[in-house]
Specification:
- Helices cover about 65% and strands about 15% of the residues.
- The chain is an alpha+beta fold.
- The strands form 3 sheets. Strands 2-5-6-7 form a 4-stranded antiparallel sheet, with no helix packed on it.
- The termini are close together.
Length: about 475
């Protein structure tokens, strides 16, 4: 199920080294990167394992369809004990009818020609497999995007806690200074009460921030499979391109949801052709061998037959015509779904770029706001020491600085999530596209083992059993 490892590429963090795959003890010393989180999510995700199993189940649909073109061999046997008495009008004597009979039968049947009914079903099953593969890729994108969100969520929550802790320290100093100035008559009790109230509010905000950090940590543990260590800020965004229209064109061409919908349309059209062909005759080759022996007497019978038979359902209450109409309706439904998916994919790309543009503007504004609020806070605090400003002015300035810094932290985290959401919207947020240092799941390996519907005792069947045992161990 696994193919070669891919080197780590430019879409993730620069400077990632072998420590991304090292043991847990080393990781606790070095800062974790976004690449580490993505690797952990890819290897840990139970959702990916679930959908890989669903893909293998879809592979078996191809094997089942292929088997309908292979010979059908069946055997049967019986052992019969007859008993009773026989008396006729011509004879006054009774005859015993007690004997033991054994019989063995072997029957074979092979479809020679069915106007393509079964072959169309095989091709439709293959298209369904391809659609399921694309669905698996889409799940992979969702898993990796959630890992980005979890990583940035922990960073954001950690910075909020640090801001709140610093805010509590500053307000503690302000409350102490207000108390000292009250004792020497420089301020009133109202100023002290304002400082105390603001400090109590800051402590409440710190408790809430610490609770948010715990929640973010649990989300990270759930997605990545381990508790976050010391996380490193991502140094650069992935390359996205500036044109929304070109991104939409890429998404329509390669997004897994689009590709899955296209394969579903192809499968539905093939099933229409199969339903049409099912109304035509079938030609089959049949053979039969039989052996019967009376174990109570020296009597036996051996024989066989081989022949070609043709048949066709002339009337079945309209069931065959109904099946054709139903297949056509489902094909129309899949074409409608393709139209819906195309519009949704394009909308997702547009929304992702709009979010990125908004967050970039918020981040730039917040950076200017932080610089201005910091200058204002320092100036107001100096003026307060000279008596030109009140305690309320200082507290308001501190709150404005905290709000600006909080907005900056949120915007920075949202910026990375928005960037990777664009990759997901265009179908490029996969382990292969990101060149993550992981072993990529190969969906073709299992399919190649089962596509010809191997018998259990064949060499290919034994290889398949070994693969299944390895999957169960994993």
């Amino acid at each position: 199920m696994l193919i070669n490892k891919f080197p780590f590429g430019r879409h993730i963090l620069a400077g990632v080294c072998v420590l991304a795959l090292s043991v847990g003890g080393t990781r606790s010393v070095e800062a974790e990167t976004l690449a580490d989180a993505l690797v952990g999510a890819y290897t840990h995700s139970g959702l990916l394992e679930q959908n890989r199993a669903l893909l293998r189940a879809a592979d078996e649909d191809v094997a089942s369809a292929v088997s309908t073109l292979k010979p059908i061999l069946q055997w049967s046997s019986s052992l019969t004990q007859n008993f009773g008495r026989l008396r006729t009008a011509a004879s006054r004597t009774s005859l015993n009818n007690d004997d033991l009979t054994a019989a063995v039968n072997l029957a074979a049947e092979l479809v020679l020609y069915d106007f393509g009914t079964r072959q169309f079903q095989i091709e439709a099953a293959k298209e369904s497999v391809l659609a399921t593969r694309e669905a698996l890729i889409n799940i992979e994108q969702q898993v990796l995007l959630r890992a980005v969100q979890a990583y940035m969520g922990v960073l954001e929550a950690s910075e909020f806690v640090a801001l709140r802790q610093n805010n509590v320290r500053l307000l503690t100093e302000e409350q102490r200074a207000a108390t000292d100035r009250f004792e020497v008559g420089e301020v009133t009790r109202t100023d002290v009460a304002l400082a105390q109230a603001q400090l109590a509010q800051a402590r409440s905000g710190l408790a809430a921030a610490e609770g948010d950090l715990i929640s973010a940590t649990e989300e990270y543990r759930n997605v990545v499979g381990r508790k976050p260590g010391r996380l490193r800020q991502p140094p650069s965004l992935p390359k996205l391109g500036n044109s929304v229209e070109s991104a939409k064109a890429i998404a329509v061409r390669r997004h897994p949801s689009m590709l899955a919908a296209q394969h579903q349309v192809a499968a539905a059209d093939l099933l229409v052709r199969s339903a049409d062909a099912a109304m035509k005759p079938n030609i089959s080759l049949t053979g039969r061998l039989s052996l019967s022996e009376n174990l109570s007497a020296n009597e036996f019978s051996r024989g066989g037959s081989i022949g070609v038979q043709a048949g066709q359902t002339i009337y079945q209450g309209g069931a065959l015509s109904s099946a054709v109409r139903q297949a056509k309706a489902r094909a129309d439904s899949q074409r409608g779904n393709l139209h819906v998916v195309r519009n949704n994919v394009q909308q997702d790309v547009g929304n992702a770029y709009a979010t990125l543009t908004t967050v970039q503007a918020q981040l730039a504004a917040s950076e200017r706001q932080v610089r201005a609020a910091r200058i204002a806070f320092r100036g107001i605090r100096e003026e307060a020491t000279l008596g030109a400003r009140t305690t309320l002015d200082v507290l308001d300035a501190e709150q404005s600085l905290l709000d600006a810094q909080s907005l900056q932290v949120s915007a920075r985290a949202s910026l990375y999530v928005a960037a990777y959401a664009i990759l997901s919207a265009t179908g490029r947020l996969t382990a292969k596209d990101l060149r993550l240092p992981v072993q990529i799941y190969d969906p073709a390996e299992y399919y190649n083992l089962v596509k010809d519907s191997p018998a259990k005792l064949s060499k290919q069947g034994k290889d398949l059993d070994r693969v299944l045992r390895a999957l169960q161990k994993d």
